[in-house]
Specification:
globular; OxRdtase_Mopterin-bd_sf; Sulfite Oxidase, Chain A, domain 2; Molybdopterin-binding protein; 5-stranded mixed β-sheet; about 10% helix; mainly beta; about 200 residues; OxRdtase_Mopterin-bd_dom
Length: about 200
């Protein structure tokens, strides 16, 4: 996300430097990194499910997602492999909109993707204008290699938390590790605190 820095007496920093978390470098590209092969999901077959802790399931088809209010967002994104890309342009539906009528006492979410990928997040990190179901990037349909037709976008955390090819958000009372978290990645993943691995 954008960050405002007050200039002090320690020299002048370029704006891009001030927006770069520790250990990161800028890239003009959008590298493609995935835990497995790219699943191809036709929009006619696409569905987003939100499952609550009591088993209640809420679902949206592609047409129903497109009928929800969308937002254009410009955010900085940060990959755990140390690249950052500034001012990326997306369109999607806020998770505040998706979850508005979902009754839950959950504090955590497990996001499930086509292809079997999972990642866990505190539910509060999906709310208050901080997360979207994104389906456009840079003015075009989201390409499959970047998570199309739709992915989760949680730009204030490392990008592995922004699950590609999202299909279900499972709401949970207790936290549990997802795919990379089971392999030693940090449960939360704040780039400003360099939470790359367990113990960071």
């Amino acid at each position: 996300m954008h960050m405002t820095v007050t200039r002090g007496f320690h020299g002048r920093r370029r704006d891009s430097d001030a927006r770069l978390p520790p250990g990161q470098h800028l890239t003009p590209d959008f590298p493609v990194l995935s835990a497995g092969p790219t699943p191809l999901v036709p929009r006619d077959d696409w569905e987003l499910i939100v499952a609550t802790e009591d088993g209640t399931r809420h679902g949206w088809t592609w047409a129903e997602l497109m009928a929800l209010p969308s937002e254009d967002v410009t955010v900085d994104i940060h990959c755990v492999t140390s690249w950052s890309k500034l001012d990326t342009d997306w369109r999607g539906v806020s998770l505040d909109t998706v979850l508005a009528d979902v009754d839950t006492a959950a504090d955590f979410a497990m996001v499930h993707s086509h292809g079997g990928y999972t990642t866990n997040l505190p539910l509060e990190d999906l709310l208050d204008g901080r997360a979207w179901i994104a389906y456009e990037y840079d003015g075009d349909e989201l390409a499959p290699e970047h998570g199309g037709p739709a992915r989760l976008l949680v730009p204030h955390l490392y990008l592995w938390k922004s699950a590609k090819w999202v299909r279900e958000i499972e709401l949970m009372l207790d936290d549990a590790p997802g795919f990379w978290e089971q392999l030693g990645y940090h449960d939360y993943g704040d780039p400003w605190r360099e939470q790359r691995y367990q113990g960071d």
